[in-house]
Design goal:
Shape: globular
Number of strands: 8
Distance between the termini: 75 Å
Number of helices: 27
Radius of gyration: 26 Å
Structural class: alpha/beta
Strand content: 5-15%
Largest sheet: 6 strands, mixed
Length: 577
């Protein structure tokens, strides 16, 4: 029997021992969950181990299962991780192989502890350097890798120091040139009740799990605050918190968290979240609190990215381009829709080294830029560019099939091409992979509103506006449409005027509809030239171009009548002008 075959048999034996353990055996669902993911992994089917397949195959959910509405897989995965830790801390302490379920993933890892003779054994699944405590008894991060990282950081610092006086401030902000490193410290339990320990430690791990879905932050769990002094890799930010009894409600809990910038040793962000007494026993309570915190921490407009945004607003990064800074520029373009911002992001991506250019997120961002900048081109050229964008997006998905950002860009591309059913499916995949992404949720809400599903879109939009830090102007599309549907033209005009600063196609049209409802000819006259100046309308005709974005036929009719009443000629409505 080969060594690999022997290892496989060891894993199967380890699985059988765990399944026979009473704590697992009394939960048939968790037993099926563990058996399912281990056997699929051993059969080489790791790519098929998804939240959707687990929900359907293990937990009996229907084929229309929506992970955003039903987080059963994530919750059960947390329970399984806790039981595995308990098992290997007790009856399984001497097992020759450990089956682990990494935070944020459903593919198990098989770890063979370091033997006394120094033989580390083999792992049938790679062991990533994520959230592994030193007490585990096995190596998870190569010191050689850490040395390379340290040398790379030193080389970067040296290169920055040679920029000269003009770049002095940029050199001082060198920490903002790379993805921020965030360490989450175990939250303190100040309730005075030992039983509430899980409410504190569980939330810290939940925050780490949810933040790992954002590929723009390096996040790790440090355990106790004392562990920070022994960090092999320093952090840019520390997140700590506590749980205590809510002084405003008997029986309730209050979570208080703060984010410290280690470069200045100052608190740059804080938040308090309350959980009412009846909800404390609810299995979703920690998930809801974590979603509230991570929606702000993971956002590209959030506190951990503040220094990078300031740097990009003040300095050129020519010669210092990297994937993180290019993503920041891409998100700045997303927030403003400015052509100059798009060009700057495009130039940044073009200067990346080949290895970075071929990653899924970078390819997806370039595909989005390629497609969106083609809107103002003639139909034949536009079709050619959309085909190129589709090729890039397909390549992005091949390289990063579980990246939420990639799926969000895929959805936007489908939306731009008028493939609205595919767009909805892609938005669903993005939010399944990262339900805390307010940008993906806001984009989906806008899409739903534009295809005539405003009732579904409105609560999503409210959640994004309340949960996102500094909501960008493009989040105001759904409130504008909702106000128009209710004939609340004053509110509609206010939202439309904000939205028009980020969407130069639809924003002015929304404003004209609202102004006509108010009988305000001056506002109509103000926004009508802006509609007629839109390059994509001039290249394709107003209504042909709008029909690709808006699948709500009644709303298209309303727009046509509104523009006709404003004096737009039929030729401009139906063809290039």
């Amino acid at each position: 029997m080969s060594e690999v075959s022997a290892r496989r048999e060891e894993i199967k034996s380890a699985l059988e021992r765990i399944l026979a353990w009473p704590e697992i055996a009394r939960s048939p669902q968790l037993a099926r969950f563990l058996d399912y993911i281990v056997r699929r992994s051993l059969d080489g089917e790791e790519q098929s181990i998804k939240a959707y397949s687990i929900a359907v195959d293990v937990f009996g959910r229907q084929t229309d299962f929506d992970p955003q509405a039903d987080p059963i897989v994530r919750v059960q995965a947390r329970r399984l991780r806790g039981l595995l830790e308990q098992y290997y801390g007790g009856p399984g302490a001497d097992d020759t192989v450990r089956i682990e379920l990494p935070v944020g993933r459903y593919v198990p890892e098989f770890v063979f502890p370091i033997a006394s003779g120094g033989d580390q054994g083999v792992a049938l699944a790679p062991v990533p350097p994520t959230i592994e405590l030193a007490s585990r008894g096995h190596v998870t991060v190569s010191w050689f890798v850490l040395l390379v990282i340290a040398l790379g950081a030193a080389a970067l610092a040296f290169s920055l120091s040679t920029w000269g006086p003009r770049q002095e401030s940029l050199t001082q902000a060198a920490g903002a040139l790379q993805r921020p490193r965030l360490t989450v410290v175990e939250f303190q339990n100040l309730t005075g009740e030992p039983a509430k320990l899980l409410a504190a430690s569980g939330l810290a791990m939940e925050v780490v799990t949810d933040l790992e879905a954002f590929d723009t932050v390096n996040v790790r769990f440090a355990g106790s605050p004392d562990a920070l002094d022994a960090e092999a890799v320093p952090s840019d930010f520390i997140l700590n918190g506590l749980v205590r009894r809510n002084p405003a409600e008997s029986g309730g809990l209050q979570y208080s968290v703060s984010l410290t910038d280690r470069s200045s040793d100052s608190v740059v962000w804080s938040r308090a979240v309350s959980v009412a007494a009846p909800a404390i026993g609810d299995r979703w309570a920690l998930d809801d609190v974590s979603m509230d915190l991570v929606a702000a921490l993971g956002s590209m407009r959030g506190p951990v990215h503040g220094r990078a945004r300031e740097l990009l607003a003040q300095y050129s990064i020519e010669g210092q381009e990297n994937a993180y800074l290019c993503r920041m520029l891409f998100d700045i373009y997303r927030d403003t829709s400015a052509f100059s911002a798009a060009e700057r992001a495009q130039a940044c991506f073009g200067k990346l080294i080949e290895r970075d250019r071929q990653t899924g997120p970078v390819l997806a961002a370039v595909a989005s830029l390629t497609a969106e900048l083609a809107r103002a081109t003639p139909p034949s050229e536009r079709a050619e560019r959309l085909a190129r964008a589709s090729e890039l997006m397909a390549d992005a998905l091949r390289r990063a099939p579980t990246n939420a950002f990639v799926w969000e860009q895929r959805a936007r591309l489908y939306e731009l091409m008028g493939e609205h059913d595919n767009a909805e499916a892609a938005y669903g995949s993005s939010l399944q992979l990262n339900p805390a992404s307010m940008d993906a949720l806001a984009a989906r809400a806008r899409h739903l509103a534009l295809i005539g599903r405003l009732q579904e879109a409105a609560p999503m939009a409210r959640r994004t506006i309340e949960g996102a830090p500094s909501p960008p102007r493009w989040y105001m599309a759904v409130p504008a449409l909702e106000a128009l549907s209710k004939s609340d033209y004053e509110a509609a005009l206010q939202y439309a005027e904000i939205y028009s600063q980020s969407d130069r196609e639809l924003g002015p049209i929304f404003a004209i509809l609202a102004a006509q409802g108010l009988g305000d000819g001056e506002i109509v006259n103000l926004y009508l030239p802006r509609v007629l100046e839109v390059p994509s309308f001039r290249a394709n005709g107003i209504l042909p171009h709008l029909r690709a974005r808006i699948a709500d036929g009644q709303f298209i009719t309303r727009v046509r009548r509104s523009l006709e009443a404003a004096g737009v000629q039929a030729a401009a409505l139906t063809g290039p002008f």
